[in-house]
Amino acid sequence: MGIPDGKRDDLIVHDTAPFNAEPPARVLAESMLTPADAFYCRNHGPIPDFGAERWQLSVGGAVAEPLILDHAALSTRFRAHEVVATLACAGNRRAELAAVRPLPGKEPWQQGALSTAVWRGARLADVLRAADVDPGADLHVAFTAPDVSTIPDPPEPFGASIPLAKALSEEVLLAWEMNGAPLPRLHGGPVRVVVPGYIGARSVKWVTGIVVQPFESHNHFQRVDYRLDGSALTALALNCAILDPDDGVRIDGGPVRLAGYAIAEDARRIDRVEVSTDGGAGWQTARLAPAEHRWAWRRWSLSVDAEAGPLSVLARAWDDGGATQPESPVPLWNPGGYANNAWARRELMVGSG
């Protein structure tokens, strides 16, 4: 299997079966929203092949009124909402951790295992209220899907869960559109969960089952995988990256435009991004794009003067609570290669020589 139809032919492909790929960094830098043909792909098994006419969702467990919804019922019974949100793989920037110590069998994601889109669909909260869930209960909302993964032994479909409090927040969607078009099959169509602020593994694609229960999902990808220090990964970590220029390229001397993104943790906002070209001795504040969307990345840019020779660039983000990123990926290494949010780095060569 090569690159699927509808995707750019310059994607950085890490696996073909299942298909896992990220866009080149410069492509992510081009726009606030990521086109569907460039949006990163993270899959754990074969991509299900069924359309909206065959899709059905069951909602059960600790609810007073269990539901069975087809696509028409979901899209007409419940008011549609839009959320601009960045989804990110928990293994984004894993390649830097693999350089600290090998991570065999793990996709060497660079800084492009995240993308941003306009998602449209029904609020999960509205569906759960229609099922008459107790909003004050200490419960979890588990999602199941039909994509069977051979990573667990024995194989099992992908699944995940989130706390009920998060599921009832207004930003979590059962989405059927992406960037104004029907949700592509490759990205979870006809319907997927979108959980802004959480790692991408909780935004279950091709969702067909929702169960409200008093415990986290027992699915392999919640109980065994996507965990750090014994706990299931939830909120994304404060992070930033340098997208342009790409690492190791040769650039002309003079003014050089640097560009990248920054993302904040679930309850925080990006306050500033700083860039250093002298090994961290001094820092310049980058220009941040307007904070138009609560759950989306902030793009940043900065022009620096570059003289002939090697140029090392560092970048770090600060949130509105005064937190910043750790300097080195060394103490962040973990067997899953998750949650690398060390300072971003680029090594460039200036001059035509």
Automatic annotation (TrEMBL):
This is Sulfite oxidase. InterPro entries: Ig_E-set, MoCF_OxRdtse_dimer, Mopterin_OxRdtase_euk, OxRdtase_Mopterin-bd_dom, OxRdtase_Mopterin-bd_sf. GO terms for molecular function: heme binding; molybdenum ion binding; molybdopterin cofactor binding; sulfite oxidase activity. Residues 233-347 form the Moybdenum cofactor oxidoreductase dimerisation domain. Its cofactor is Mo-molybdopterin. Keywords: Metal-binding, Molybdenum, Oxidoreductase. Residues 44-220 form the Oxidoreductase molybdopterin-binding domain. It comes from the Bacteria.
